[in-house]
Write a structure and sequence with these properties.
The complex is a heterodimer of chains A (354) and B (130).
Chain A: H1 5-12, H2 14-18, E1 24-30, E2 32-42, E3 49-51, E4 54-55, H3 57-70, E5 78-81, H4 91-102, E6 108-110, H5 114-117, H6 123-129, E7 134-138, E8 141-145, H7 153-158, H8 163-171, H9 185-196, E9 204-208, H10 226-233, E10 239-243, E11 251-254, E12 257-261, E13 302-309, E14 312-319, E15 325-330, E16 335-338
Parallel strand pairs in A: 2-5, 5-6, 8-9, 9-10, 10-12
Antiparallel strand pairs in A: 1-2, 3-4, 7-8, 11-12, 13-14, 14-15, 15-16
Helix pairs in contact in A: 9-10
Chain B: H1 2-13, H2 24-45, H3 57-60, E1 74-76, E2 81-83, H4 85-94, H5 107-119
Helix pairs in contact in B: 2-5
Classes of the chains: A alpha/beta (354), B mainly alpha (130).
């Protein structure tokens, strides 16, 4: 029997020590019980250096709680960090974040975020976490990790006088001086070659920082070459893309590809349509995340575990101080749906964003 | 003598024009005044200067989204009463930004309110809405 994680924590009394923590537990199940496995997914911690050994307390708390949670039972096979460990990509921030993550004592697969990348183009991040993009196999699943936060060469290499300025310009989510994310031709070619040897019945899980779909360019909820990447993934029967960056629940289905966002440990973001002049909407099937009104320090940061039955995903979001959510692939409709709230009549007032 | 009187009256009124004598140029000037204050608000919104920990309003509120200026005054749960928008702004300055309250009439508060309202232009007033 699969245990509800919050229930588990209550039973063990760990809830008093650790609270309900914003880590994403991801469980994959492929028919055979022996092939079931769980991994933890932590993302978007935005560790922010103030001065000396001072860091923004609020963001530190988010990551510390996630790490504490991932140390508890059930033990994950490995941990994914979904990008934006740092706020401004400095050695101090990356070191501080890596130090907190090092308490996990599990294999760590890291994804590059734009806040990690644009100071030194991922050089120091690589010393800590390795390659910017790679793949690995785990219990019958082929995992692909992409660096999806690249952009046009002119912007990256020629527009800004200093690396610090470049980082600041990309760090502002709504900054019109920013530039759209992309995977880029070189990495797409690597992806084609990497997948060439994989049977099309093998479940594929892609881990990226940006959505690999186009939602709202103004806040870079966007990947410029999303269609090209999707075309490479499309021949596979069961593909799941897990992405960070958006700090909110999103889900979508495009052909054989299911998309799920993961929560941030740092802070939540508004949905694009709540900006009156964006003209943008999240995928129509997404029932928005619940929000506390007014602000609560850990509101809408959370964790989830994900079951994959026969290669399709059920994401169980456990949200700090907020009601749990489950988004599961519905074979009848061929898309992910919220198991409780998909019917508009079932929705609750905290899901109304305006 | 008549010239002197007019000059004296003009000085008293503070303007050479009657109250209803304003032109397109005046309208443009006033709009530009608003834009410049809203721009100052945008600068404050995206800078760490209001707090002590480097956090900026824009980190959680890109384009001032999720601020709902059209719903104020409204009941504010953590204050336990109906509050104005500037009170909620100060709540955010004190908490996530770890800074000090601004006075309600502080030009920086006016600038923040101007920027928020500008980003929300066109949305109907819904006082009290949650």
């Amino acid at each position: 029997m699969r245990m509800n994680r919050r229930g588990f924590l209550r039973q063990t009394g760990a809830v008093a020590a650790a609270g309900v923590l914003p880590v994403s537990m991801v469980r994959l199940a492929f028919g055979q019980e022996g092939q079931d496995f769980t991994f933890a997914y932590i993302s978007d911690s935005h560790i922010q250096h103030i001065r000396g050994n001072e860091f923004v307390r609020n963001w530190d708390q988010g990551l510390k709680r996630a790490v504490a949670e991932a140390l508890l039972e059930p033990k994950p096979d490995f941990v994914v960090f979904g990008g934006d460990l740092a706020q401004l990509g400095t050695k101090a921030e990356l070191d501080h974040g890596a130090e907190m993550l090092s308490a996990l004592r599990y294999p760590l697969y890291a994804v590059m975020g734009e806040h990690d990348y644009y100071l030194d183009l991922g050089e120091y991040w690589s010393e800590l976490f390795g390659d910017h993009y790679y793949s690995f196999d785990h219990k019958g699943v082929h995992f692909v990790v992409l660096n999806s936060v690249l952009t046009y060469d002119e912007w990256t290499y020629h527009r800004w006088e200093t690396p610090e300025r470049r980082m600041l310009e990309m760090a502002g989510l709504d900054n019109p001086n920013g530039s759209p994310f992309m995977v880029g031709e070189r990495q797409r070619e690597w992806l084609r070659r990497d997948l060439a040897r994989i049977p099309r019945t093998t479940p594929i899980v892609v881990l990226s920082h940006s959505p690999l779909q186009k939602i709202y360019k103004g806040w870079n909820f966007w990947t410029e070459d999303a269609e090209e990447v999707q075309a490479i993934l499309a021949p596979f029967e069961k593909v799941t893309v897990l992405y960070g960056h958006v700090h909110q629940i999103q889900y979508n289905q495009i052909g054989s590809i299911s998309f799920h966002s993961v929560m941030a440990t740092a802070w939540p973001w508004p949905y694009p349509e709540t900006y009156a002049h964006s003209g943008a909407y999240v995928p129509v099937m997404t029932v928005p995340m619940n929000r506390a009104d007014p602000f609560n320090e850990r509101d809408a940061t959370g964790w989830q575990f994900i079951d994959v039955h026969t290669g399709r995903v059920a994401a169980h979001y456990t949200l700090y101080d907020n009601k749990n959510r489950t988004v599961a692939y519905n074979a009848a409709t061929g898309r992910p749906e919220d198991t409780e709230y998909q019917n508009p009549a079932r929705r609750i007032p905290p899901q109304a964003h305006y | 003598m008549r010239k002197f009187l007019i000059a004296a009256l003009t000085a008293l009124a503070g303007s050479t024009a009657l109250a209803d004598e304003f032109t397109e140029a005046d309208l443009e000037r006033w709009a530009a005044q608003f834009e410049s204050v809203a721009q100052e608000g945008r600068n404050l919104w995206t800078s760490p200067e209001l707090g002590t920990n480097g956090v900026a309003c824009a980190q959680c509120h890109p384009n001032a989204a999720n601020t709902h200026p059209e719903t104020y005054p409204k009941f504010q749960k953590q204050l336990g009463r109906v509050a104005q928008m500037w009170e909620m702004i100060n709540w955010c300055i004190r908490n996530p930004l770890e800074g000090e309250d601004l006075a309600p009439g502080d030009p920086r508060m006016t600038a923040l309110l101007a920027y928020i309202a500008k980003e929300r232009r066109g949305v109907p007033l819904e006082p009290g809405k949650h």
